[in-house]
């Protein structure tokens, strides 16, 4: 018979009857990547919402790990079914949908103290037919994938919105110069190069009252605007400018993190063929690539490490 003790943070379980010194640490579980598509068809003009949802519960699941007692284990199959059932009422926004799931699981089961809910969402656009958007035929539209994470930790709720794979390129108004030169440096300085990246950004809301869809569209527009409008002295400068614009315009966002590859485009030497190459023919290298990551935040903002746990690829 195992005597268990749950430590204060409810994630570390000490098996006190066992002197092996081996304990259960942090744990979470759930159903990953539930692909749910919701069609709203109240009228002939249908709407579509397309998500990939992951649900993970945190709380007292010690006895399942230590004793094979599943009395606290809300089945991952049940979590999957809950996602589909909740979609029956519509999604609204990925963030609002995940918040609903968080409320449901934490209020329905005493021992569920929190969890992590994540979504990717894929945009569809009406197919243009006879000068108008079709009622029920769509083409995948967004160049990017929208992302959302909700972390429930006791009574606290953390909401992180984001996007990834927003691929952008500009053919001029970018350079890179002034960097240190040592015996290994071969890179030539330039004031006119191609700048290309796949923007991945995640931003954390510090207010509970947010029109998530509207803010998403505006943040996306601000990121593109920053990429476009400013001469880029480095991808780092462009990244900070993107973040600064977002924080200036959106008081409900406390911090924004970026991870952006510098997708190098090398000018091809055409001299062997008797041709010049005034920045017109490039070799688009897929690897290696520079990888530029940074957080843009408000001075004095209280950090929220629990919100960011489990988000890979951002510093
Ligand atoms: O925008 C850039 N940032 C760098 O840090 C860097 N390093 C490099 O070789 N090229 C570039 N470009």
From TrEMBL:
Protein residues bound to urate: 76-77, 176, 193, 236, 262
Annotated 5-hydroxyisourate binding sites: 76-77, 176, 193, 236, 262
Swiss-Prot/TrEMBL catalytic activity: urate + O2 + H2O = 5-hydroxyisourate + H2O2
Oxidoreductase recorded as keyword: yes
Residues involved in O2 binding: 76, 262
EC category name: oxidoreductase
Matching PROSITE patterns: URICASE
Domain of life: Bacteria
Biological pathway: Purine metabolism; urate degradation; (S)-allantoin from urate: step 1/3
GO MF term (any one): urate oxidase activity
Keyword annotations from UniProtKB, A to Z: Oxidoreductase, Purine metabolism
Keyword Oxidoreductase: yes
Record SUPFAM superfamilies: Tetrahydrobiopterin biosynthesis enzymes-like
Active-site residue list: 31 (charge relay system), 76 (charge relay system), 264 (charge relay system)
Gene Ontology BP terms: purine nucleobase metabolic process; urate catabolic process
EC number(s) given by UniProt: 1.7.3.3
PANTHER family noted in UniProt: URICASE
Known role: Catalyzes the oxidation of uric acid to 5-hydroxyisourate, which is further processed to form (S)-allantoin.
Family: Belongs to the uricase family.
Record's protein name: Uricase
Organism of origin: Agromyces fucosus
